[in-house]
Amino acid sequence: MDRLMIEGGIALQGEIPVSGAKNAALPLMAASLLAAGGHTLHNVPRLRDIRTMQALLGHMGAVCEHGEAMTIDTGNIHTLEAPYELVKTMRASVLVLGPLVSRYRSARVSLPGGCAIGARPINLHLKGLEQMGVDISLEQGYVSARARKLHGAAITFDQVTVTGTENLMMAATLADGVTILRNAAREPEVVAVAEYLNRMGARIEGAGSAEIVIEGRPELTPASIGVIPDRIEAGTYLAAAGITGGRLTLTRCAPEHLDALIHKLRAAGVRIDVHGDSLTASRDGAIHSQDVKTWPYPGFPTDMQAQFMALMTLGDGVSIISEQIFENRFMHVLELKRLGADIELDGRSAVVRGTDKLSGAPVMATDLRASASLVLAGLAATGKTAISRIYHLDRGYETIEKKLAAVGARIWREKE
Ligand code: EPZ
User: Which residue among 76, 146, 330, 410 is least enclosed by CB atoms within 10 Å?
Assistant: First the structure.
């Protein structure tokens, strides 16, 4: 296995291009199952999770090639199943369920199983599909879904679910009649999926708001779209500028997707200038401790909680970080404490008392965003930090060590 080595204490300076969003590319790839023929996706990031979705689509009979653009031909789907071997490595595989059962009336998708950051059930996905006329049964760890024909329904989510909203929105595009999704997720990635489905001939209104209306159509046709920039990757590099006291300009990003984070980073003493599709972040004063509560978009993103906590470990006071979305998303705390951070857990909150420095040490990545948090802390820590199990990192960050080394970080990968 690989590990990432970092010699910290360097203020990062320079420009970083932001890649396409993993959490938009994955549902867009699944959406190609709704219309037979050749789809084209531009700006798809080269990540482990993308390769897993490619393998899953290939397993079903799609021809998916990732050159400059990604082409997906779903004209010959012969297997309506998402096997455990693939689903267990990537929960987002559940996104093929809605398209498969809506277009082919049948699907067999492995239950995703547990995850480091929480139970993450898919009960809301399944309840919504049942309301649309799908018979769901759970057998040997698989969801078996059957339907004569899906029909529209008025569905209210008990709680906001991003992939639940995406799954049911995709399923509703080929159902008979109108589906209304209430308490829907408002993330930019949901809006991106709706935009793509409408290019395929769907009739979706309200994406980006809490109420989405989908008028079912008899069939859809293949289309093409560019993947939106990855707001979490961008946010991670903004935090890198803040924690190292450097100055980074991020290009090819969508500043409007980062309002809640930018607000908190500015309050923490990070100067952020917005110009078009670029952001420049710098810090030359103290890091001011801030309280944060994660919340569905447009609130503070849970996917930035671990990275923001890394910044707060060097704050000038006390920061209360409250994780409202997942029940176990503090796996990075014990690892940050190994680097000298002063953090106490209290249920869904972490109390972070700022210290004046972090010191490098061997640490272990436990999940995607926790590993990003450890990279940030390692960049600020004096001495050498070794991060093991960085396959977690490769799921969501395209060539992170190349991007960071290009702006002055002393970071490299080596065999463990
Ligand atoms: C998406 O996961 C993202 N993944 C996650 O990003 C992100 O953290 C999460 O949304 C929240 O923003 C993708 O888009 C591929 P949810 P998702 O359904 O859709 C509970 C990353 O780091 N819930 O919005 O799986 C659930 O347990 C990843 O890139 C149910 O109880 O998250 C959680 O507590 C990590 N039943 C809450 O809702 C359900 O049927 C929000 O989950 C569905 C969800």
Answer: 76
